[in-house]
Amino acid sequence: MTTNPDGVAVVEVGPRDGYQGIGPFIPTETKLSFLERLHAAGLTRIEIGSFVSASALPQMRDTPALLAACGRWPALRPQVLVPSERRGRDAAAAGAREIAYVLSVSESHNRNNVRRAPAESAAEYARLLAALPAGTFVRLNLATAFDCPFEGRIGEARVLALLESLVPMRPEAEICLCDTTGRADPAHVAALFAAAQARFPEARSWAFHAHDTYGLGLANVHAAYRGGVRVFDASFAGLGGCPFAPGATGNVATEDVAWMFARMGVPTGLDLDALIPVARDGAAIPGGLPGGRVRDALAAGPQACAAP
């Protein structure tokens, strides 16, 4: 993650969001190889997996082993996703020191995901915070903050009402608003972040998690950036899609985000030349559903811009 105050931080979520829906199990050593290459391309904060039921998401069953292996890269900040107090405690016991707790604004999505109402998940978040070791970095992911696959567009008031109960629990937590279905548009993104930042000035860090289902991932990232957001999730090769959000495709591609910000002169700390080969190999993972445009555009070479 870049420390330049004028730059942005890109959080690589491909090893979690990108892999979780892939059927054929990706060997642990293959996952570690991708982690090593992503880290070498400048990604220092990577969501390496999630602590979840192995029966529900078998691709994530080796997350504890991956977490243990991350010690070989001292500068890497491995982040893990947890959907409940129990899984958060499991992650902490396994040595996780960067935990992303996820709950949905939409009751339908939250119940489909973790069989709980959002208020119940909020209560679990409070108990987990009390149980975490001192110094644990906490991110709060609000899934379906813009749209729900079951309920449609989510009203701004519902998001703010849930944050009213969550933000005071740990104001220093990083708060990530997630476009779970990819149906958000730039105006919606800008308006929700503006409202949330105005309502909760005590919140120290805001992040945005974009999906590219309708091709608006980069536009939404840009809208959030213009609104003052400086932390962005992305997935190499555009891999991903939520198993509990039918029709959602992958996150906005890491290489696309890196290219856009480079063109804008905004530092990311990423080496695009090193990232593109990793993305090309990621797009070839059996069972994966890649997205993104930059790696193919760059592969076409200068002739892509030749005059007709």
UniProtKB/TrEMBL annotation:
Protein name per Swiss-Prot or TrEMBL: Hydroxymethylglutaryl-CoA lyase YngG
* Record-linked NCBIfam families: PRK05692.1
Underlying gene? yngG_1
* Presence of the UniProt keyword Metal-binding in the record: yes
Q: Name one Pfam family in it.
A: HMGL-like
Which organism's genome codes for this protein? Methylobacterium crusticola
Ranges where the Pyruvate carboxyltransferase domain occurs: 8-276
* Entry similarity comment: Belongs to the HMG-CoA lyase family.
Which keywords, in A-to-Z order, does the entry hold? Lyase, Metal-binding
Q: Name one GO molecular function term.
A: lyase activity
PANTHER family membership: HYDROXYMETHYLGLUTARYL-COA LYASE
Q: Which CDD domains match?
A: DRE_TIM_HMGL
